[in-house]
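help with this record:
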Amino acid sequence: MSISSGSTISPALTGSCQCGKVTYSSSVLPSSLTACHCKTCRKLSGAPFLTFASFPTSAITYSSGISSLTKTSYSELGDRTHCSGCGTPLSMQYKCQPENISITAGSIDEESLKAPLPKVSQHIFLSEKASWFEMQVEEKEKCQKFEKFSTNFQKKVDGWKKVFLSPGLG
């Protein structure tokens, strides 16, 4: 993640918050899209889930409004950012995976896309899914579904916790 220095390379996509104070670009398209149904994502978005696009951290450049980005930690696992002006959720970054950042897919400027985005490939935290929300048949059939994190990511989280949240380290 960096601050723009006036690069002339055309980005793969751009995005922003609702008020336009915070703008960003990415040099690559996201590797995947994930719909998170955890209670925090539902409360922050006011929707049944929040969809994140996964990028290498190095691919994201904030073009403007970096001073309007507010970082919040709702758990020891990661940090989220939102625009302090309009409140738009913008990113989630897990401490066990600093090389990746998840950008809220709704903040991506669709008209900027150089190629189509991937479809949502997984739904996570279905154990916290809103009782009134039902997934469409197509999503049930085509997407991976997990009660919490995916199995591989949960292993990464557990390994990180053992090292960084062990007694005596903080």
In short: The mean pLDDT is 92.
